[in-house]
């Protein structure tokens, strides 16, 4: 069926939304591009035949053109999504297992996107900028309670107190900084 | 709360002559709400953002000088966190719009008259341009250049779902016919976004409804819920589409049971007053492409008001 491969590609992407990104499917992409080339050649042949006087080929041409456009749309969608999202999730450095699943151009694109975003964030306000990837949720409580999953050592809270974060100990601390640690390094679990 | 206001005012006086920090914050919150609920990118309020960030720095300095272990300090710090959240949420929201509608926004920017203000701040403009270049480059290297020659261009119009929108607008025009509405101060209306788009954020702002069931009167409601400011922030985060609101003068009440696209699938109840003719109009209404199914209950004025404390 026309355009089936492209749909399959999109499905694959859709399935991986909640989990981790699947490897860049170079095979499928190449197959789609080949299908497009074949369709295009067929079209050209038919068009020149129509020009030469043959009739009745036009609907076929239209159908193929629609398939071409659909393939293009699907392919672009496949390339576009989710890499951007990862910048917000993981920060400026990608975890190796994710990086492994990207093709080289995608890594480059991630790098460029990252740089752009960083430039923008630096230019906010007069002094030093603002990290937009922080403060994703509105602060709710003054204190949070955390349990350390990993030995972290000493941690300085915002008011200058030093908390020792030992494995399996529970700490009650002021919200803002520890929260970031929780999100970023996943060493602590918020209760 | 009043304590914090005082604190704000203290630190604000040095730099701000015309506005107190509290006013700036209110303006910023308003801009944030408008931005959040408008499908368009609105004018950039970068001066407010800048001012607020300066204030945050100032407040942090003040806190450093304060006595350690003072309870007030924690509260101030939380207030700072909240403000910072509002600022970054506002900017994030704008950024998302810029990323999603880059071509459209840049196109508008090019067509803009000299005397009109730009909707983008200079930084955002650079970002939008860079983004569009890099994105096109990325798509070109990976896919477009391998495609047949007549498909190699990146036609921006194809990525915009214009058709659906067109149909929707027509249907609605049929429904209502032509109508001239006088917008008076403090009136609240349900209407399509398009005709009022130029006014949005200038003479109009988002009217806030409270998602709690107990509050019946909209305006009362605002007071109710502002008891805890954070519940407002929370509800704003949960509600993707608020649908609202109307006149105070008529005697009918109804509740819209609203579909919330949040993962909790929580249904929110809005109590609003509405004129009977508009009721017909609202059922099966589609707003910003989202189907809002409405279940309506009618009450008479006297019965509902008795539920208010």
Automatic annotation (TrEMBL), chain A:
Ranges where the GINS subunit domain occurs: 39-124
Record key words, sorted: DNA replication, Nucleus
Pfam families hit by this protein: Sld5
Coiled-coil blocks: none
Superkingdom, natural source: Eukaryota
Task performed by this protein: Required for correct functioning of the GINS complex, a complex that plays an essential role in the initiation of DNA replication, and progression of DNA replication forks. GINS complex seems to bind preferentially to single-stranded DNA.
Protein's name according to its UniProt entry: DNA replication complex GINS protein PSF1
Taxonomic lineage from the root: Eukaryota, Metazoa, Spiralia, Lophotrochozoa, Mollusca
Automatic annotation (TrEMBL), chain B:
Keyword Cytoplasm among UniProt keywords: no
Listed Pfam families: Sld5 (PF05916), SLD5_C (PF16922)
Acidic residues composition-biased segments: 1-18
Domain GINS subunit: 70-141
Assigned keywords, A-Z: DNA replication, Nucleus
Domain of life: Eukaryota
UniProt-annotated stretches for the region Disordered: 1-21
Keyword Nucleus recorded: yes
Protein's cellular compartments: Nucleus
Gene3D superfamilies: 1.20.58.1030, 3.40.5.60
Domain DNA replication complex GINS protein SLD5 C-terminal: 160-200
InterPro entries documented for this protein: GINS_A (IPR021151), GINS_bundle-like_dom_sf (IPR036224), GINS_Sld5 (IPR008591), SLD5_C (IPR031633), Sld5_GINS_A (IPR038749)
Descriptive protein name: DNA replication complex GINS protein SLD5
Organism phylogeny: Eukaryota, Metazoa, Spiralia, Lophotrochozoa, Mollusca
């Amino acid at each position: 069926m026309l355009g089936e491969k492209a749909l399959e590609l999109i499905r694959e992407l859709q399935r991986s939304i909640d989990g981790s990104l699947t490897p860049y499917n170079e095979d499928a992409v190449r197959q789609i591009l080949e299908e497009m080339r074949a369709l295009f050649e067929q079209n050209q042949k038919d068009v020149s035949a129509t020009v030469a006087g043959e009739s009745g080929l036009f609907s076929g041409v239209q159908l193929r053109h629609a398939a071409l456009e659909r393939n293009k749309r699907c392919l672009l969608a496949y390339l576009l999504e989710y890499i951007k999202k990862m910048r917000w999730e993981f920060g400026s450095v990608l975890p190796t297992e994710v990086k492994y699943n990207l093709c080289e151009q995608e890594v480059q694109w991630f790098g460029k996107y990252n740089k752009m975003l960083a430039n923008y964030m630096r230019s906010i306000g007069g002094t030093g900028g603002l990290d937009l990837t922080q403060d994703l949720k509105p602060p709710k409580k003054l204190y949070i309670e955390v349990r350390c999953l990993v030995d972290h050592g000493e941690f300085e809270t915002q008011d200058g107190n030093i908390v020792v974060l030992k494995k399996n100990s529970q700490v009650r601390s002021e919200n803002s900084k520890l929260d970031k640690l929780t999100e970023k390094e996943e060493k602590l679990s918020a209760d | 709360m009043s304590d914090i206001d005082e604190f704000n005012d203290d630190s604000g006086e040095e730099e701000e002559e015309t506005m107190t920090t509290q006013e700036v914050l209110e303006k910023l919150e308003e801009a944030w709400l408008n931005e959040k609920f408008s499908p368009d990118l609105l004018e950039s309020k970068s001066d407010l953002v800048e001012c607020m960030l300066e204030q945050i720095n100032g407040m942090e300095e003040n806190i450093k000088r304060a006595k350690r272990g003072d309870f007030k300090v924690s509260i101030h710090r939380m207030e700072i966190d909240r403000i910072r959240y509002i600022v970054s949420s506002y900017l994030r929201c704008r950024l998302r719009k810029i990323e999603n509608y880059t071509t459209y926004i840049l196109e508008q920017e090019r067509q803009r008259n000299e005397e009109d203000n730009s909707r983008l701040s200079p930084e955002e403009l650079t970002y939008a341009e860079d983004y569009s270049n890099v994105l096109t480059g990325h798509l070109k290297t990976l896919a477009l250049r391998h495609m047949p020659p007549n498909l190699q261009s990146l036609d921006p119009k194809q990525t915009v779902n214009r058709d659906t929108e067109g149909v929707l607008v027509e249907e609605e025009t049929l429904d209502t016919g032509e109508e001239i509405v006088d917008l008076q101060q403090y009136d609240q209306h349900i209407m399509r976004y398009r005709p009022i788009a130029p006014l949005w954020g200038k003479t109009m702002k988002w009217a806030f409804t409270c998602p709690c069931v107990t509050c019946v009167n909209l305006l009362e409601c605002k007071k109710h819920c502002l008891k805890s400011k954070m519940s407002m922030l929370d509800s704003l985060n949960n509600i993707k589409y608020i649908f609202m609101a109307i006149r105070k003068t008529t005697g009918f009440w109804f509740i819209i049971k609203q579909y919330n696209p949040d993962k909790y699938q929580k249904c929110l109840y809005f109590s609003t007053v509405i004129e009977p003719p508009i009721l017909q109009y609202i059922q099966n209404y589609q707003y910003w492409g989202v189907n809002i199914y409405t279940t309506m209950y009618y009450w008479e004025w006297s019965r509902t008001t008795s539920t208010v404390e």
